[in-house]
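User: I'm writing a tutorial on reading structure tokens. Could you give me a worked example: one chain, its sequence, then its tokens, then a sentence or two explaining what the tokens reveal?
Assistant: Sure. Here is the example chain.
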Amino acid sequence: MGEALDENGILLRHQSVYYHSTIMRWGYAFLLNGLLALQPAWGDDVDLRVGPHIIKAEIAATTESRMRGLMLRNHLCAECGMLFAFPTADRYGFWMKDTPLPLSIAFIAPDGSIINIDEMQPHTTEVHYAKNKALYALEMNRGWFTRKGIKAGDRVLGVKNVVAAH
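And here are its predicted structure tokens:
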């Protein structure tokens, strides 16, 4: 079977197994490291409140996580969303390219008040902008804000606890 023997005629199979085992361990370590580097856009969660409604929001606070957002996601639980936190307030724009979920977006001022809410269609490149300078944006399943009676001027509590990475 092509098994190697050392100068004393002892089978070197165990050294070979050890060698392959070591390679496998290093391979798994590199694979795990690669998977950690490709972690999803979302990271930590934050509990937000708008009136009596509680939202479990995934946080997108880095440039990479904000760019990826909910792209390629096929499901978002009924009371879940994604909170985008930016380093400075501005009139940010969002589109739905590569996003299969129909979503609503609320642009939120630094004080937590909702500036405006837009409905977004999946897989479109139409850009939806904040009507004023926003520090946050909250994406929820399409129609969520309307069903809950939430409108511009309402306050989102808990956003001030989220800080964007520069």
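What the tokens reveal: The chain has two domains: 1-38, 45-161. The helical segments are 13-37, 63-68, 144-147.
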